[in-house]
Structure formats: C-alpha cells, structure tokens
Design brief:
The protein folds into two domains: 222 residues, Alpha-Beta Complex (Spore Coat Polysaccharide Biosynthesis Protein SpsA, Chain A), CATH 3.90.550.10; 186 residues, 3 Solenoid (UDP N-Acetylglucosamine Acyltransferase, domain 1), CATH 2.160.10.10. It is elongated. The N and C termini lie far apart (107 Å). The strands form seven sheets. Strands 1, 4, 5, 6, 7, 8, 9, 10 and 11 form a nine-stranded mixed sheet that branches. The protein has a nine-stranded parallel sheet with strand order 14-17-20-23-26-29-32-35-38, with no helix packed on it. The chain has a seven-stranded parallel sheet with strand order 12-15-18-21-24-27-30, with helices on one face. Helix 6 crosses helix 7. The protein is of the alpha/beta class. The structure holds uridine-diphosphate-N-acetylglucosamine and calcium ion (CA). Uridine-diphosphate-N-acetylglucosamine binds next to strand 1, helix 3 and strand 10.
Length: 464
C-alpha cells in the first residue's frame, strides 16, 4: 500500500445553480469544451482513487445521463434535499460503507482544478487526520475563514457566522479536503444545522476533528485561480477565458506559435504538435489534433478534426474531418462530417465537402459541392462542379477515378462512376458511367448563326 493511495474521491455536485438561470444543471455547462463535472472527474482520476463518487441532487437525471457517457465507472450518491455540504458528503459516504483510508472531497463546479495539484494536496496530507486546501486571499469575502490557534487549525467559520475579528482573517477555505475516513465519519455524525444558514456544514467537521485531538493540516495554494468556481454566467465566461489562457500557455510552452492569444480558443481535449502555427481567430474544438508544421487560420473553426503535418487550413469551418499531410484547405471552405482530404490534396474557395474522400493530390479548387463522393488521386474537379447526391428521396454516391478531369460547371448525378483517366467536358450533366480513357460530353452542341444580330435589329425597327 503506497502512502498516497486514495480510498475515494467524493465530488459534491448536488447544488441548484440557481443563479445560472438555466434549464441545464450547473455542472453540465461547459468550460473549454468539457462539462464542469467532466473537469472535476478528470482531476479526481489523477489520484487513481479506488472509488469515485459523485453526489447528485438537482437535475440528477440529466447529470446521470451525461456521466453514463463520459465516466460510466463513477458511483452516484443521491442527496434528496440540499441540506448543506456536510449532508452532501454524508450522502457520498453512504455509498462507501466501511471504507477506510483517505477520502478526498472536491466540488463539481470548480473546473480549473488540476490533477497534479490534487496529487500535491494529498501528499501534503501525510501525517494529518484532515487537510484543508487554503489560500491567502486579498479579498476573502464570501469564503469560510480558517481559524488558527498557536498556528494550528481549530475551525472554519463561514462568512455569515463570523465575528469581526474572524472576518479579518485572510486565509480562506477553498472547498477541497482530505480526510481520514474514520475521522470524517465521526465528524459528520456530530453535525448540527445550528448556524446562520440552517445547514449541515462540512466545515464543522474541522472543528470536531480538531477538538477531538486529531491533527488538521493545510495545503496553502498560491495559484488559487485553480479553485475558483462558477455560480453564474459571468463567472462561467471568466473561468472559460482563464482556462483558455492556461491551455494556450501550455501549448506555447510546448512549441506552438499562437499569434494572437486574445482571439484563439483551444478546448481542453485538443492535441497540438510543436511547430504548429495558429493564426488569429482560430478555434480548435472537441478532439481536434494538429500535427507538426501545420498552419491554421486566420478565422478557422475545427471541431473534431485531424490535421496532418504541414497542412494549411485558411478561413475554414470543418467538423469530423481528416485533413492529411500537406493538404491545403480554404479560404472559405466548409468540410462536413466524413470528409477526408488526402495528402497534398486541395480544397479551395467556396467549396463544401461532405462524407467524401479526396485522394492524394486531388484538387477541388473553386465553387463546388462535393457530397458522398470518392475522388481519385491527382484528379482535378473543375470550378462550379456539383456532385448531385440527392434525388429528392435517396442519397447516392459518386466515384471519380484517379487522374481524371471534370470540366467546369459539370453536374455529376449520383449514382455514377467515372473511371480512371476519364475526361468530362465542361458544362456536362453526367448521368451515365464513363469508362477509362473516354471523353463524355453531355450538353447541347454550340451553333453559330451568321448575321443574326443585324437581322434582329432590322426586325425590331420594322415593328416600330
Ligand atoms: C463552501 C464552504 C466554504 C468555502 C467555499 C469555497 C461550507 C459550509 N462552506 O461554501 O467554507 O470557503 O465552499 O468555495 O462547506 N453542495 C451540495 N449539496 C448541498 C450544498 C452544496 O452538493 O446541500 C455542493 C454545491 O453544489 C457545490 C459545493 O457543494 O458544488 C459547495 O457548496 P456551496 O453552497 O457553493 O458552498 P459555499 O457556500 O460556497
Ligand atoms: Ca460556492
């Protein structure tokens, strides 16, 4: 048994979040593209706890459905009535009967807390029976104050219950705790709702623990921005901006050039290689990954997109797509789910691609809709080509082979197959397959009528 083994993490997440004024429970709101409860679980998992318990109350069905997707192994404890943080932890402990060892308590609405910080916190608990995460705040208003006698922690007093002398204490309780399980159980059993809010305060466990002769320690965190929570939409925006700044700093430290951090947004689950450049107005979302040397932006949004080495993506909106090594996309391109742009291929201005695979070196440079298609290597799709994939009832696929040429302003009416090396004359409406090496022309033949303009003029004058 290693010293830092954690028996359980209890995440308190039953609060109403009334000030969010939302139909969604507070902890489901996202910060840097991940739900707040998702952040809390990620940080907790860095402790590799034997058990992870989430305490739910308000909007419990919605949160449970989300947890089933992102963290099916968590245990759920239900707090029927919101009687305070002490009651929330009591609910959490009720699904951990007979548990021994270290219990870590955190909150579901503090999305900036890092796993590495929680690990240091647990390490600092060694030799204590209870440990508080505290900070010395320039303005501790609203927080519980950490009361010490001869340097030893004896209690935490809430703002509304504090004396003027206690209000002058700048050391605040930031809402993260490590307890020995037996000490926690004993302290919870003694809680009374005899305070200004009529709640069972988890913080009163501190006083019970200290007065029973156990040792209460502290872990003073200078980077207390990590502990800041979300109570309303203003704080949601602030935490989102702060986490984004931290994420960008991390990637810059890892060798990514970010030209304008003020207008660049990178979600928590994005992966970026060294020597990538992000130009202003770039937003990388979901599980997007970008390989070395790629240049993204300006004004580009990529959602769950994989970008290969050295690719360039300019003024583009793309989702669930793969852009391979050396490909170029944009400006003004729209890549919809299922798009694969092959190595060195090109998707140009005002081109929309959906559920299509473009082979290596294929080019779709201008003004095209390409849906449900495969385009072979080195094939050129002329300006204004439309892949007509929908007949009003069904969608069908089009395949164009390698080294083919599709003339400008053609319509390829699916299902249709154009073989390797075939040539489609400009302005054709192709409804039948075209074999290798064939030229297909599917339009009216041009007719020139000599003297027609003069004749019309004469006709019009006669009419007057
Ligand atoms: C709590 C601490 C305070 C500390 C502050 C740090 C207590 C009594 N006070 O105050 O010392 O400075 O956190 O942010 O604990 N929750 C439940 N069920 C409940 C009540 C709350 O699950 O019945 C959850 C909330 O959803 C939230 C967390 O517990 O995630 C903290 O609750 P909150 O009401 O925000 O506590 P504070 O009053 O801020
Ligand atoms: Ca709070």
């Amino acid at each position: 048994m290693t010293d830092n083994r954690v028996a359980a993490v209890i995440i308190m997440a039953a609060g109403m979040g009334t000030r969010m004024k939302s139909a969604r429970p507070k902890v489901l709101h996202e910060v840097a593209g991940r739900s707040m409860i998702g952040h809390a679980i990620k940080a907790a998992n860095a402790l590799s706890p034997d058990r992870l318990v989430v305490v739910l109350g308000h909007g419990r069905e919605q949160v449970e459905a989300h947890l089933a997707e992102i963290a099916p192994n968590v245990s759920i404890a239900v707090q029927e009535q919101l009687l305070g943080t002490g009651d929330a932890v009591r609910a959490g402990m009720s699904v951990l009967p007979g548990v021994t060892g270290k219990i870590v308590v955190t909150s579901g609405d503090a999305p900036l807390m890092e796993g590495a910080t929680l690990r240091e916190f647990v390490a600092a608990h060694a030799g204590n029976d209870a440990t508080l995460l505290t900070a010395l705040l320039p303005d501790p208003t609203g927080y519980g104050r950490v009361v010490r006698e001869d340097g030893r922690i004896t209690a935490v007093v809430e703002q509304r219950d504090a004396t003027p002398e206690q209000l002058a204490i700048s050391e605040a309780n930031m809402g993260f705790y490590v307890f020995d399980a037996d000490v926690l159980r004993a302290g919870l059993a003694k809680l009374e709702p005899s305070n200004a809010q009529g709640e069972y305060y988890l913080t009163d466990v501190v006083e019970h623990t200290a007065s029973a002769g156990y040792s209460v320690g502290s872990f003073v965190l200078s980077d207390y921005g990590q502990t800041e929570g979300v109570n309303d939409r203003i704080q949601l925006a602030q935490r989102n901006a702060e986490l984004n700044r931290r994420i960008l700093r991390h990637w810059m430290e890892e060798g990514v050039t970010i030209v304008d951090p003020e207008t660049t947004w990178v979600h928590a689950d994005v992966d970026i290689a060294p020597d990538v450049t992000l130009l202003p107005g770039t937003s990388l979302e979901g599980a997007t990954s970008v390989a070395g040397g790629a240049v993204i932006g300006p004004d580009t949004t990529l959602i769950d997109v994989e970008v290969g080495a050295g690719a360039q993506v300019v003024r583009t909106h793309a989702l669930l797509s793969v852009i391979e090594e050396g490909a170029t996309v944009g400006p003004f391109s729209y890549l919809r789910p299922g798009t694969q742009v092959g190595p060195g291929a090109k998707v140009g201005a005002f081109v929309e691609v959906k559920n299509s695979q473009l082979g290596a070196g294929a080019k779709v440079p201008h003004l095209t809709y390409c849906g449900d298609a495969a385009v072979g290597e080195r094939t050129n799709i002329g300006a204004g080509t439309i892949f007509a994939n929908f007949d009003g009832e069904r969608k069908s696929r089009t395949s164009v082979g390698a080294d083919a040429f599709v003339g400008s302003d053609s319509v390829l009416v699916a299902p249709v197959e154009i073989a390797d090396g075939a040539f489609i004359a400009a302005g054709s409406v192709i409804t039948d397959d075209v074999a290798a090496g064939e030229l297909a022309v599917a339009r009216g033949r041009q007719r020139n009528i000599p003297g027609w303009v003069e004749q019309r003029k004469a006709r019009n004058e006669g009419d007057k």
